[in-house]
Specification:
Number of domains: 1
CATH topology: Aminopeptidase
Bound molecules: coenzyme A
CATH class: Alpha Beta
Distance between the termini: 26 Å
Largest sheet: 6 strands, mixed
Shape: globular
Number of helices: 4
Oligomer: single chain
Order of helices and strands: HHEEEHEHEE
CATH architecture: 3-Layer(aba) Sandwich
Helix content: 25-40%
Strand order of the largest sheet: 1-2-3-4-6-5
Radius of gyration: 14 Å
Strand content: 35-45%
Length: about 140
């Protein structure tokens, strides 16, 4: 999957924050701690740094949701992170993002922190970031 395709999927995702651009995805992929896993209709990008892994984004095309695709990508990333020596996986999710929060809860992620007013949506609204973590 190319940075262009990732940015396109992001723009279709319904994410209320500013979609990441092709250049931003390219720069992320050029970083040697980054890991990308993808299927035809979605991707996960994360990073693995020693004992801590982090999911940066998981996006599945709206027409292909609730088919277990995100769960599978997350499982693959957790295995890669564990095999690389990570003990925990972190991520940030908007407080209002109920589908993502349900997904991570179903996979065993627990709240470990919160950043108030962390996200600024394109319509000007703000939202808190919830920080989740899972032992892997
Ligand atoms: C969040 C997202 C990645 C989930 O992808 P997905 O492939 O549909 O997720 P899965 O099919 O693996 O879902 C697994 C479980 O998570 C929960 N879940 C996922 N989406 C849900 C929803 N919209 N409502 C309620 N529960 C949901 C359910 O428990 C689901 O199991 P079930 O379908 O058997 O009930 C997808 O909705 C998406 O791309 N959203 C926009 C981008 C985004 O918010 N990414 C997360 C950034 S942190």
């Amino acid at each position: 999957m190319t940075p262009f395709e990732m940015a396109k999927l992001h723009s279709l995702s319904g994410d209320h924050t500013r979609p990441w651009s092709e250049i931003e995805y390219k720069n992320l992929l050029d970083t040697n701690t980054s890991r990308l896993f993808y299927t035809k209709n979605g991707f996960l990008i994360g990073r693995v740094i020693d004992q801590d892994a982090e999911i940066l984004n998981v996006i599945i095309h709206p027409d292909y949701r609730r088919l277990g695709k995100a769960s599978k990508l997350i499982g693959t990333f957790e295995k890669e992170a564990k095999d690389s020596g990570s003990l925990r996986c972190f991520l940030e999710v908007a407080e209002s993002n109920n589908s993502a929060k349900k997904l991570y809860s179903a996979l065993g992620y627990l709240k470990v922190g919160q950043r108030n007013n962390y996200y600024k949506f394109v319509d000007g609204r703000k939202d808190d970031a919830v920080i989740l973590s899972k032992e892997i």
